[in-house]
Amino acid sequence: MDTVNIVIYIAIAVCGIFGALMGFFKGLYKALINLAVVLATAGISFAVVKIALKTSVDEEKILMAIDYISANFLPDAEFMTSVRETIVALSERGDAVGMVAALPMVFVAPLLFMIVYLVLGLIMKIPEFIVCRIIFGKKGGNRAGGAAVCAVTKIISFAIFIVPLVGYITMANTVLNDIGSLEASEPQAVVESMSDEELDEDFEEEQSQESSQSMVDTLESLSKSCAQINSDYVTPIKNNFIIKSVYACGGRWMFNSLASVKIDEAEISLQSELAVLTDIYKELPALAGAPIAEYDEEQTVAIDNITVALDKAVVVPTVVSSVISYASDAWLNGETVFGYEKINVGEYYEPTFDKILTVFSETTNETISQDLHTAGNIINICIEQGFFKETFGGGSPMTVIQREEFMGSLFSELYLNDTTRPFVADIVNAFKNYIYRVYNEVNGTNVPFPEQLVMGNVTEEMMYEEGARISSIMKCFVSFYESFDQNETDNLKIIINTDLRSLGRAFDILKTSLFIGDSYDFVLQAVLKSKGASQIAFMTPEFVDAMLSTESSMETVLVSRQQLAIIASVSSAEDRSSAIEHLLKNIDDDSADVIIETLTPEVLRNLGMSKEQSKAMSGALGSIVQEIANNDGEFTEEEMTDEIDAVDKIVSTVQAATDGDKSSNLFSSGSEDDSSRSGYTATELVDTVVNSKVVSSAINSSSKDEEGNAVENPYSISDKLTESDRDSAKTAIEEYYQENAGEGDNAELEETLGSLASIFGVQIELTK
Q1: In sequence order, what are the residues at sequence separation of 6 or more whose Cβ sits closer than 8 angstroms to the Cβ of residue 77?
Q2: Cα separation, 425 vs 430, whole angstroms
Q3: Fewest CB atoms less than 10 Å from the CB: which of 134, 279, 303, 422?
Q4: pTM attached to this predicted model
Q5: Are 154 and 201 in contact (CB under 8 A)?
Q6: Residue 90 contacts by C-beta under 8 Å, 6 or more apart in sequence?
Q7: CA 192, CA 198: separation in Å to the nearest integer?
Q8: So what's the pLDDT on residue 209?
């Protein structure tokens, strides 16, 4: 670039020498006139370019040009007519058309100045000659002064002429320096150890990786090329003393003034818009360095930087807002946009989609900045929560949607923006409508959709919590439906394997929801009265009605009811201990009321019990549940073990007594070759039951009615026992009293033993 610098210095020298010679012959006065003409030429040229620039971006002038082209050069004007209609529509939504037209014009405006200045300078020679001839004739004043003034004039004229080139060089140096300093991110390595079943996913991942590598290579190549061009050509010229002097002494202001235009209140500046584009470009390596499925913190920082850069832009936000508004409005009116019809989302989702388009149709240049920030923040939420990784990496996006942090953050972000705030209501309404639609499809009904949500006064914190609730509800429902096997015919297996805890938790969360809590009763009915739920044995109409009226936790009721079914089932004895423990820890008064009310023999028969067994178990379990609720539920570890053992033994006794098998005794004799139905002796049963708070209270309450009168055969098993079984029970009860009765008041012990005797239908004599 030494040659270019030499040329610049030579040009300045030539201008100075040529100007000095001309000034020597003209004289001082004529030289001053020449200086004035040069400055006037520069001012007029500047004004002409600015006027032309303003006129060229006038939307009416653009439309007139399109009409002229259509009429004179395009026989088939259909396309231009479509373009004209689009421009008119966009012009009604802001200054997008003028701004788009302004970009190329502000780029060429400095070059246009050079042309106008050169041509006008030649033209101005004529009036300059006439004025000088009329005023001064052949005399021009001091020749030395004239030489000095004219030399300076020519240097100034040359400097004014090259201002656009100086501006372009300086601007190019900045842009090329920024681009050339970039280091493209290396794409992340693909894991090679893939199983045979993952070959297809592996291939897709490699394809994505190759695409990222290709983009990285392109950016690296461009960065190196820009750095080389900047180093070899642009920087040496930009650092030239003459160039730097011209730029510093007014050249910067003049170039920026030429390369800018004001449209209404918006200033369109070539330098500012290029700076924004450069800032955005600087973030591309981070975005291109990895497939979208592998975006992480590096990409979130890049997106944040892009949204910040767009805050300084004028053209891009205006164009984006106008296009979004125009397209949304056109689609709402059934029109095409750039040849594309409105996306078909299906009849069911179309109302929600139309609401979204309505919101977008109101997007303005004033709101678009915040909208872009919101969009960037939402993208970053998706990255941080792994939404893109699941969606584009072969996983399931539902795993992310069901996270409280994801939906909570999403709702908060949408709520903070006035434009996107209505989307929260749309999401909620779509969710509510989905529930009603599924219910109608499953049950063949036509229940109308619920009243749609209207956003009230809520805080950002409340919005986050509501989003978290909805994600939790979705997660719970998904867990419930995934665990439910509709092809299973064994009621007991359905009860054991179905995740009723998640179903109950979904109901409990739904009840507290600000947005969809009003649908609680319907959702409860929609699920519990569905065809699938009817396969669960205890989901009777009576149980559903009881669930609708209770204030108890649905999770507590459903899980307790599930555990009770496990306890009641003969085939599930191995799981009985954990089920009993759950009941002892969780049943409260409200859940007990629901369970007892709906614990009918009919429900137990659906679990495979006989008529006699279901009747006995219904009474026994009902009394136990009631006493668990009456108890405070606070047990030590040792007490909990004793209570579990007691409940297990009394339930097993009732089951064994009513199973219809009379070939062996109910109670064990204690011998090694014993073949009893229960597996324990009557003494073990009595000892365990009497020392239990829950079971002893249960048999006491069962053996008396509300007036305190004795109830005959309270557990419906006394008539099912053999004489040997009754004798064993009688002996065990009497011996227990003899061994454990104290010297004082034995009323409580006598009541418990008497109640136990009534269960077995025996008469006892309690003597010490």
Answers
A1: 70, 71
A2: 8
A3: 134
A4: 0.62
A5: no
A6: 96, 97, 322, 323, 326
A7: 11
A8: 53
